[in-house]
Amino acid sequence: MQLHILSGDDVRQALPMAQAISGMKGAYGQLSAGEATVPLRTQVAVPSYGGVSIFMPAYLSGSDDLAVKIVSVFPENVQRQIPTIHGLVLALDAKTGRPLALLEGGTLTAIRTGAGSGAATDVLARSDASVVAIIGSGVQARTQLEAVCAVRDVREVRVYSLHAEHARTFAREMAGQGPIPDVIQVADSAARAVRNADIICTATTASHPVFSGELLSEGTHINAVGSFRTDMQEVDVTTIRRSLVVVDSRDAVLAEAGDLVAPLEAGEIDETQIHAELGQIINGERRGRSSPEQITYFKSVGVAVQDAVAASLALTNARRQGLGAIVEL
Q1: Contact 144/221 with Cβ under 8 angstroms?
Q2: Which residues of the chain have pLDDT under 50?
Q3: pLDDT (0 to 100) of residue 229
Q4: What is the pTM of this model?
């Protein structure tokens, strides 16, 4: 059996953001149309070492994509001076079940997560949105910025991070890449970053809201991708109440997204606050933004259909470009 191996650099070359955004629209559309088999992710805790390994399989019947992602999150790795997160994606032939490729999962996850927000921004943000605030300065924050700049004519970018030096590095390294503006402002608070912003992306590991919903201007669009557990929360209930709430997967966010689960359990909102899945809007089943003044909020915890589609796109392009290595097993 031959297996195609794609490194992080290979994945980055083989999965350009514009194509990834288009792929995510297709993935979300299939998910909401019932054309995907996506069990809720399985988490295996490793308490002896303070970590967790997460297994995320998916099959999309519309595009015939089949894959499983394995992600391990071990916070104590910081003390070992190795990455906190490791990930791999195994792509399989849907017709035979034969393993086709093994892809470095961290890069693929960052690109597909950014592309998911790019899809949501293209569908929900005002067409004239041009001021972007990024909360967080890690790998995910970088692809969030890349994605929103791929779908809107962004003229001003602000970044805020609890780690000021990280924010300055982000600003220096991201400025001028592709459609990203040549200057990125480093804000000294989240409040300053989000004030009068047209698009806000939160990509943090926060357990408490990172800004007040009272600060949101009319017409703002928010992409919230950081919280993926019920004990994590990036936005407050005011933001939820003021927004048209759109999610990647209703089942997934109700099981995992602290942004929504916390106010639901507190009785501050009910499930009717969730307007639609993004795929329902893409498929024309539900309406998206209804006015320039409306605030829109996209909550993504990440769904395995994204990985399956992204892996398929990357593998197709890698074969065409001669990227990666073939190993015989």
Answers
A1: no
A2: none
A3: 84
A4: 0.94
